[in-house]
Amino acid sequence: MTIQHPLSPQEFEAALRAKGAYYHIHHPYHIAMHNGEATREQIQGWVANRFYYQTSIPIKDAAIMANCPQPETRRKWVQRILDHDGYNGSEGGIEAWLRLGEAVGLPRETVLSEELVLPGVRFAVDAYVNFARRACWQEAACSSLTELFAPQIHQSRLDSWPQHYPWIDAEGYDYFRSRLGQANRDVEHGLALALEYCDTVEKQQRMLEILQFKLDILWSLLDAMSMAYTLHRPPYHSVTAARVWHNQRLV
């Protein structure tokens, strides 16, 4: 979409929401999981690799806060970190994701070790965190606007997974349930920031590109998993069956 003149807040919001056509809910890997066509290995691989994304979210949000000079914005944004890291007796989203890992049959130590995280997943997530560190805080904050589409994807998992994958322990779904309300709250704040900040053609055009960048990241995660768990071509598959790729955070 090429913007010719400044869009009204309503028009710009519609343009942002139109990007939902490229959300990873439409990726073949996710469609297979939704339709009950995924194997145990594919479910476990998805959970293990998405853990790297989940643990990077509060790091990304801390970077945004570090660049933001507005106390009122930081006071709101910090809730995102608390949601994932936990506070005042609340376990937080990262702990809930570890329980999802256990629910699909992955030992906690395996998930925490990040030994299953594919290089393509790691590179994509690291690009997101580095963008948040280097961009102005408004642009970095608005890159989170894929949350516009998140409630639908969480609900789709709650609707389909128990039916198709009875071997998954029901307690593992707590993360998806908690994110339904949290994502709606975060969308309200993030969208308000975007509509206030993007008041010129240049800013609106750039923000659409940034949102596409974030969509590209989420899609790329599933592309990497498709190579490894659907096509059975993980990194170095033509050389060795061993997982020789790096498994530590280097950036």
Automatic annotation (TrEMBL):
A Pfam family that the UniProt record links to this protein: TENA_THI-4
Listed InterPro entries: Haem_Oase-like_multi-hlx, PqqC, PqqC-like, Thiaminase-2/PQQC
BP terms from Gene Ontology: pyrroloquinoline quinone biosynthetic process
Enzyme kind, highest EC tier: oxidoreductase
Domain Thiaminase-2/PQQC residues, every copy: 16-223
Swiss-Prot/TrEMBL keywords: Oxidoreductase, PQQ biosynthesis
Pathway annotation: Cofactor biosynthesis; pyrroloquinoline quinone biosynthesis
Catalysed reactions, as listed in the record: 6-(2-amino-2-carboxyethyl)-7,8-dioxo-1,2,3,4,7,8-hexahydroquinoline-2,4-dicarboxylate + 3 O2 = pyrroloquinoline quinone + 2 H2O2 + 2 H2O + H(+)
Known function: Ring cyclization and eight-electron oxidation of 3a-(2-amino-2-carboxyethyl)-4,5-dioxo-4,5,6,7,8,9-hexahydroquinoline-7,9-dicarboxylic-acid to PQQ.
Assigned protein family: Belongs to the PqqC family.
UniProt protein name: Pyrroloquinoline-quinone synthase
Lineage: Bacteria, Pseudomonadati, Pseudomonadota, Gammaproteobacteria, Enterobacterales
